[in-house]
Amino acid sequence: MEAPPLLHRLRDELYRELVDHILPYWMTHAVDHTGGGFVGRITNENEVLTGAPKGCVLNARILWAFSAAYRLLRNPDYRALADRAYDYVSTCFLDTEHGGVYWMLNPAGRPRDTRKFVYAQAFAIYGLSEYARATGHEPARALAVELGQVLEHHCTDPVHGGYFEVFSRDWRRLAGARLSDRDEQAPKSMNTHLHVLEAYTSLYRIWPAPGLRRRLAGLIDLFLTKILDTGTGHVRPFFQVDWTPTSRVVSFGHDIEASWLLMEAAGVLGEAALKDRARTAGLAVARTILAEGVDRDGGLFYEAHPDGTLDTDKHWWPQAEAIVGFVNAYGETGERLFLDAAAATWAFTRAHIVDRVHGEWFFRVDRRGNPCPGEDKVGVWKCPYHNVRACLEVIARTDRLARQALREGGRATHAGPCSDRDAG
Question: Which CATH architecture has domain 5-407?
Answer without folding.
Answer: Alpha/alpha barrel (1.50)
